[in-house]
Amino acid sequence: MSEDPLNPAGLAAVQARHEQELLRYPNVVGLATGESGLLVLVSRKLPESELAPDERLPREIEGVPVDVVETGAIEPL
């Protein structure tokens, strides 16, 4: 039986499988799981028209919605 990708364990598993790939995109500073999908944290959110096709984050991964959230720079305390 396959795991539901939208429950907390399923979201964490999808995040773990794609973390290294997603962290390679420009401006990506981190990842998190939300109530219904993956959150990709970016230092600065740019309009899609300003990004090259290979710089655009996927809208979903393995059927899980991806939401891009602008956080600014993240620095350790």
Strand content: 25-35%
- Please count the helical segments: 1
Which structural class best describes the helix and strand composition? alpha+beta
Count up the domains.
Answer: 1
Strand order in space, largest sheet: 1-2-4-3
Mean pLDDT: 91
* Intertermini distance: 42 Å
Number of strands: 4
Low-confidence stretches: none
What is the rounded Rg?
Answer: 13 Å
Share of helical residues: 10-25%
Q: What is the N-to-C succession of helices and strands?
A: HEEEE
Main sheet characteristics:
4 strands, mixed
- Gross morphology is globular
3D structure, described in words:
- The chain has one domain (8-70).
- The protein has 1 helix and 4 strands, in the order αββββ.
- It has a 4-stranded mixed beta sheet.
- It has one helix at 8-23, and strands at residues 28-33, 38-42, 60-61, 64-70.
- Helices cover 21% and strands 26% of the residues.
- It is of the alpha+beta class and 77 residues long.
- The mean pLDDT is 91.
Short description:
This protein is α+β, with helices and mostly antiparallel strands and 77 residues long. It contains one helix and four strands; from the N terminus they run αββββ.
